[in-house]
Amino acid sequence: MPLDFTSLLQSITALRRSVDETAPVMATLSPVMRETVKAGVIQHFEVAYEQCWKAMKRWLETNVNSESVDGVTRRELFRLAAESQLILDVDLWMTFHRARNEAAHTYNAATAEDVFSIAASFAPEAERFVEKISRRND
What we know:
It is a single chain. The chain is an all-alpha fold and 138 residues long. The protein has one domain (6-135): Up-down Bundle (Four Helix Bundle (Hemerythrin (Met), subunit A)). It is 79% helix and 0% strand. It is built from 5 helices and no strands.
C-alpha cells in the first residue's frame, strides 16, 4: 500500500510559494514587515523539514527495513536515505537539521537571517526528495 505524502507535498508547496513570493519584495518592506515575512518563511521551513524527515523514515521503514531505522540518529537516517538514493548529500541535510533546531530553540536576528537563507536552499532539495520517494512509492 502506497504511503500518503499529502501533508509533505502541501508543506513543501507552502515553503516554495513563500520563498518565491518574498524574494522580489523584501527590499520594499519596512524592517518590521521583513522580520514578519522571514518568520513566516522560517515557519514553513520548519514544517517542511519535519514532514520530510518523517516521510523519509516511513519510506525507509516500509521499503528497506524497519529495524535498521528504529532509534537511529538523524545523521544515520540521512545516511540510509542517501544509500537508498533518496537524497544526495547527508551533510547538507544535517545543515538543514541544525538550522531547524536553531530556529525552534533559539531566537536572535542573526540566527533568523541564517535560517531564512537556508530555507530557500532547502526548498529544491525537499522537492527533489519528494520526487524520488513519490516515484518509488508502491
